Amino acid sequence: MKSIRKQVAAWARTSSPWAIHFNSGSCNGCDIETVASLTPRFDVERFGVMLHGTPRHADILIVTGAISKQQQDRLLRIYNQMSNPKFVVAVGACAAGGGVLQGCYGVLGGVDKLIPVDLYVPGCPPRPEALIDGIVKLLGGIKGGK
Amino acid sequence: MPKITVPLGPQHPALKEPGNFMLILEGEEIVDATLRLGYNHRGIETAAESRNFVQATYLIERVCGICSHAHATCYVTNVEHIAGLEVPKRAQAIRVVVGELERIHSHLLWLGVAAHEIGFDTLFMYSWRDREHVMDALETISGNRVHYSMNTIGGVRRDISKEDLDEILKKLSVLEERTKYYIKLATQEPTLHARTKGVGMLPTKEALKRDACGPLARASAIARDVRKDDPSLVYNQLDFKVITSDSCDVFGRLYVRVFEILESVKILRQVLPYLPEGPIAVKTPPKIPAGEWVTRYEAPRGEDVHYVKSDGGTNPARVKVRAPTLANFESVAYMLKGDQLADAPLIIAAIDPCFSCTDRATLVRGGSSNVELMKDLRTRAIEYYKKKGIDFSKVS
Q1: A52, A58, A75, B366: least CB-packed within 10 angstroms?
Q2: Is the residue at B341 inside a domain?
Q3: What interface predicted TM-score (ipTM) does this complex get?
Q4: Between chains, do B42 and A25 touch, taking CB under 8 Å as contact?
Q5: Would you state the pLDDT for residue B365?
Q6: CB-based contact (8 Å) between B354 and chain A?
Q7: Over chain B, what is the mean pLDDT?
Q8: Structural domain includes residue B63
């Protein structure tokens, strides 16, 4: 009985994963590629992914950029506002580990210094195809009950 | 009526980047607005001092992902001047090609974002679909879609082959046709007019007083363009117009940007088929002689100013970036006053703000023992601007 309930929940989650985009101190490169993945040529909406404005409606937190010290409290607050289960995708080299901005005095480092990350999409910036590949892998993971 | 303060940002669906606007409302009308920056401050200028001149090029490029070529060009031009390097003509032309392609991509991106802010998502999807043609062209030239890394000190890193050239020219024809459609849309579509005309007014006098630059100034009938006023690279040999509009509102900014795409296509047609023959870069010494230089460059958002100082070593002694958006922010605070709350995201978007460009260093002077307090710096700045007739005392 429990497993059926789990299966239904996983089906619902993988069919309409809503995402929120958070810029934690990015140079905009990853942001424009994230938005580009929503537009007609790449169209990530094929997988049910929609960008939403409020963290309370979102399942996936897409974080771009190394975390600036001004933004860390806000990121934590937004992460805590999201309801469970929640998934974090770190987009770009900076979000993964600070990238080129590693060691700057205004930068804390990668996203995983603050919140648990489920998926890293590397690149400076990653191409929209890479982002879509990452999200599909994440959805596969959710389906498998990870 | 009681006044209500509504915060917009730092995380807000209408803002793609972190920035905070405090809107003071009376009913639906904005009576005052203050802004707060610095959420995106990373410390790139200090980081550049710990890298050598070549490494710093790629760091400076990452000041901003949208106008990365503008920042990198500005920086390398400074270093080349200090070192006394003569950049080959072919490299200069390739820099212009990438710069103009970047301008087209940035303006199409803006058109989409502005359309999204007024709820015209069809136009957003259209313009971003067409933007992919430019992204393809940039990828053909540089191998990457966003950070092109074309510049190096003394020239460019990659050449444009004959086959690539033909492909790019073909894409330009498609773009030109689509831009004409957008011009038709901008001049005839009544919904666009209803949301943009008379919104975010910035009269010429106010724009001059607030040192507006780029498309924002040009939409307030100020024909200011660094490509014409202080031409670098090969811009002085090219035939193009400075587009202006005297409507002084968001519609004017839309008009200026859409027509600028056509001008950029015109420039590319004059440069691409006639690329001068020769090398694409000259050799650079690892140590740059002592000296300093300031360069201006017309980025898609306006005048970008860079300062580089060298003390004769392998690393820059000081790098300073003044991004165009910083110059335009004071105008935003003015434009928001007297408009409706619902128009606030559009007015902010109308200057094409780039917070990652803007959030520069503030205070440190002479090491940690002699740190200038933000409070003192603020008092000084408020006094300075008071003399110019602008009141910053309410900005927190």
Answers
A1: B366
A2: no
A3: 0.89
A4: yes
A5: 42
A6: yes
A7: 86
A8: yes
